């Protein structure tokens, strides 16, 4: 999917969280969405996925204004997005395989096909052996990879991962980075983080400061050290 933000502004009450963000994310884009805590990173990816409504400006999906679609059209388009959020939880009472199958069966993919696709993607994230396990028996890193498998089982063309490395040790973070790169091949990958992850050196940085997109281009580590105030 061709994704675009055009003058995107999001306000919560009096609080402006995103201010006039514009960016073009054609199919195959691989980018980091960076910025300090509270800079608006999560809000930006949620708005791109149609989960937060712009107060001003537009989000365009293949050139169509997402806010102008009917609820049914929006749901259909949202099937193109695979999202890994910080707060994602697996269903405790279901096995890892059943968790990964859930989004597919919800979309009426026949059981046998859902099972085969879920098994494939679990293999891709290195969790084939844990398919029959309940989530409570997984380590934090395994849970994270299971969450990624669930987001990817439906073969989304856009993968949005919100801080997928939070709380992971360096070895597990490396594994998760490799999985994200492997499984999103050919599609768009947007990864939110507060610091550029060493293991996932994506070629483009979208750097947010207090809701403004202050840099959109090649990696620019100088922004990570820049003082808080954004010049007017
Ligand atoms: N639903 C909401 N209602 C009110 N304020 C919100 C809401 N969602 C986010 N905010 C506020 O908007 C600001 C930006 O939040 P957002 O989660 O987009 O930032 P972030 O850059 O992803 O931060 P972090 O790295 O800490 O996750 C924060 O100050 C947050 O408190």
UniProtKB/TrEMBL annotation:
Specify the ABC transporter domain's residue ranges: 3-232
Signal peptide, first to last residue: none
Q: What PROSITE patterns does its record include? A: ABC_TRANSPORTER_1, ABC_TRANSPORTER_2
Does ATP-binding show up as a keyword for this record? yes
Keywords attached to this Swiss-Prot or TrEMBL record, sorted alphabetically, are: ATP-binding, Nucleotide-binding
Q: Which GO terms describe its cellular component?
A: plasma membrane
Which species?
Myxococcus xanthus (strain DK1622)
User: By what name is this protein known?
Assistant: ABC transporter, ATP-binding protein
Q: Which GO terms describe its molecular function?
A: ATP binding; ATP hydrolysis activity; transmembrane transporter activity
User: InterPro entries this protein is in?
Assistant: AAA+_ATPase (IPR003593), ABC_transporter-like_ATP-bd (IPR003439), ABC_transporter-like_CS (IPR017871), ABC_transpr_LolD-like (IPR015854), P-loop_NTPase (IPR027417)
Record's keyword annotation contains Translocase: no
């Amino acid at each position: 999917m061709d994704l675009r933000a055009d003058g995107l502004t999001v306000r919560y009450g009096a609080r402006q969280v995103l201010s006039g963000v514009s960016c073009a994310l054609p199919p195959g884009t691989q980018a980091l969405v960076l910025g300090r805590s509270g800079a608006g990173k999560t809000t930006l990816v949620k708005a791109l996925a149609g989960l937060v409504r712009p107060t001003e400006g537009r989000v365009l999906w293949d050139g169509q204004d997402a806010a102008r679609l009917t609820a049914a059209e929006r749901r259909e388009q949202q099937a193109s997005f695979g999202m890994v959020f910080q707060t994602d939880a697996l269903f405790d009472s279901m096995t890892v395989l059943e968790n990964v199958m859930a989004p597919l069966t919800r979309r009426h993919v026949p059981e046998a096909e859902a099972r085969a696709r879920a098994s494939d993607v679990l293999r891709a994230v290195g969790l084939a052996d844990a398919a029959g396990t309940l989530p409570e028996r997984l380590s934090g890193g395994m849970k994270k990879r299971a969450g990624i498998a669930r987001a990817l089982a439906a073969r989304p063309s856009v993968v949005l991962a919100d801080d997928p490395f939070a709380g992971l040790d360096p070895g597990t973070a490396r594994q998760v980075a490799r999985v994200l790169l492997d499984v999103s091949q050919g599609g768009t990958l947007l990864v939110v983080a507060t610091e550029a992850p060493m293991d996932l050196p994506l070629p483009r940085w979208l750097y947010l400061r207090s809701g403004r997109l202050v840099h959109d281009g090649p990696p620019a580590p100088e922004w990570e050290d820049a003082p808080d105030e954004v010049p007017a």
